[in-house]
C-alpha cells in the first residue's frame, strides 16, 4: 500500500522539467523519475503526464504514485544496522535513531537504512504500510538523532499518519544554536517551500506551506562560543523545518552544513538536533503516551565541554 504524493509546484520550481520535480518530491533519482512518468505513474493537474520533458508552472499540481516507481529492489533485512528500541508492543515500536542513519531507501541510499534494520528485527513489518518504508509514518533527517514511532500493523499506520497530519502528535527537539535569541520564548510562524536559488534546499517563502515552530531558551553558554540551548516544539512537521526556521531568525543550528550560514562547526560532525520527546495517542488504546530520549552521546560529549 503506497499513498499518493501530491505537491503544488512552488515558484522556486516554475519552469523546471517534470522529471526533475518528480525526482525532488519523490526522493528518487532523475532516471527513476523519468521511468515513473513513462510508466504512467505521474499526473499533472489530474491528467496523466506523457513525458518528463514538459516544463511546469507555479501552482500546477503534480501527483506521484510511489507504487509506479521502477522496480527498485525492496529493502531487505540487515541485522548489521544498529538502532535503539525504547518501547515495543503489538501495535507500535518506538525507535531511538542514531545520527547518520538514513530512515528509508531513497535517492543514493539503497541499503543500510533504518528500514533494513527494522525488517531484520521485526520481519512482520514487510507487510505493513509502504513496502519501501515498512511501518514508517514520519521521518528524521539522517543527521538528526532521537525518537521515531514505527507502526506495527496497517491499522496503526492509518491512525498514526492521521495524527501527524492533524498535528495532534507532538515532537520536542533539543537544539543548540548560535547566539542568544532576543526573546526567551517565541513562535516562528513562517511558510516553508523550496528555495528559489537552490530547489534542493528549503527556505522561508511567501507561497510556502504554513509552518510553526515554538521555541524556549533553556540554556546559555559562553564557550567555545556564545550559543543557546533551545527546546523546540513542532506545531507542523515540514522538511528541515527547525533548521530553516532557526536560520531564518539568524540563530542557525550548530554544525548544520546546509543552513548554518557557513559558520564553524565547533567540533560537531552534524547538526545539534535531537528528537527528545514524542507524544501521540496509542493507535490501539487511544491513550495519550509520551516517550523520552536522552541527548545522543556525541551531543552530550560536546555539551559536557561547553562553559556557561
TrEMBL record:
Name of the top EC class for this enzyme: isomerase
Known catalytic reactions: a uridine in RNA = a pseudouridine in RNA
The UniProt record lists the keyword RNA-binding: yes
Keywords: Isomerase, RNA-binding
Chain ranges of the RNA-binding S4 domain: 16-82
Enzyme Commission number: 5.4.99.-
SUPFAM superfamilies: Alpha-L RNA-binding motif (SSF55174), Pseudouridine synthase (SSF55120)
GO biological process, one term: enzyme-directed rRNA pseudouridine synthesis
Record carries keyword Mitochondrion: no
Entry GO MF terms: RNA binding; rRNA pseudouridine synthase activity
Recorded superkingdom: Bacteria
PANTHER family in the record: MITOCHONDRIAL RNA PSEUDOURIDINE SYNTHASE (PTHR21600), RIBOSOMAL LARGE SUBUNIT PSEUDOURIDINE SYNTHASE D (PTHR21600:SF44)
Protein's job: Responsible for synthesis of pseudouridine from uracil.
Stated family: Belongs to the pseudouridine synthase RluA family.
Protein name (database record): Pseudouridine synthase
Amino acid at each position: 500500500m503506497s499513498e499518493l504524493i501530491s505537491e503544488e509546484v512552488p515558484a522556486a520550481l516554475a519552469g523546471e522539467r517534470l522529471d526533475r520535480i518528480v525526482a525532488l518530491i519523490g526522493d528518487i533519482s532523475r532516471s527513476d523519475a523519468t521511468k515513473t512518468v513513462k510508466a504512467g505513474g505521474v499526473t499533472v493537474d489530474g491528467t496523466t503526464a506523457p513525458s518528463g520533458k514538459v516544463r511546469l508552472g507555479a501552482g500546477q499540481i503534480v501527483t506521484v504514485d510511489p507504487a509506479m516507481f521502477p522496480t527498485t529492489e525492496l529493502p531487505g533485512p540487515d541485522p548489521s544496522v544498529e538502532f535503539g528500541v525504547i518501547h515495543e508492543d503489538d501495535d507500535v515500536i518506538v525507535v531511538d535513531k542514531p545520527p547518520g542513519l538514513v530512515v528509508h531507501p531513497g535517492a543514493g541510499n539503497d541499503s543500510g537504512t533504518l528500514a533494513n534494520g527494522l525488517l531484520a528485527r521485526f520481519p512482520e513489518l514487510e507487510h505493513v504500510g509502504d513496502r519501501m518504508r515498512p511501518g514508517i509514518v514520519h521521518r528524521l533527517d539522517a543527521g538528526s538523532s532521537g525518537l521515531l514511532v514505527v507502526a506495527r500493523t496497517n491499522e496503526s499506520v492509518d491512525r498514526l499518519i492521521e495524527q501527524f497530519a492533524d498535528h495532534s502528535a507532538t515532537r520536542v527537539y533539543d537544539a543548540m544554536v548560535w547566539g542568544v535569541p532576543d526573546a526567551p520564548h517565541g513562535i516562528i510562524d513562517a511558510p516553508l517551500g523550496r528555495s528559489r536559488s537552490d530547489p534542493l534546499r528549503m527556505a522561508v517563502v511567501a507561497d510556502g506551506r504554513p509552518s510553526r515552530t515554538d521555541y524556549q531558551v533553556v540554556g546559555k553558554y559562553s564557550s567555545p562560543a556564545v550559543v543557546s540551548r533551545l527546546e523546540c516544539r513542532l506545531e507542523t512537521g515540514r522538511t528541515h523545518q527547525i533548521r530553516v526556521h532557526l536560520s531564518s531568525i539568524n540563530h542557525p543550528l550548530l554544525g548544520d552544513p546546509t543552513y548554518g550560514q557557513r559558520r564553524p562547526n565547533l567540533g560537531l560532525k552534524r547538526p545539534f538536533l535531537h528528537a527528545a520527546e514524542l507524544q501521540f495517542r496509542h493507535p490501539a488504546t487511544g491513550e495519550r503516551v509520551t516517550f523520552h530520549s536522552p541527548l545522543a552521546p556525541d551531543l552530550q560529549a560536546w555539551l559536557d565541554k561547553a562553559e556557561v
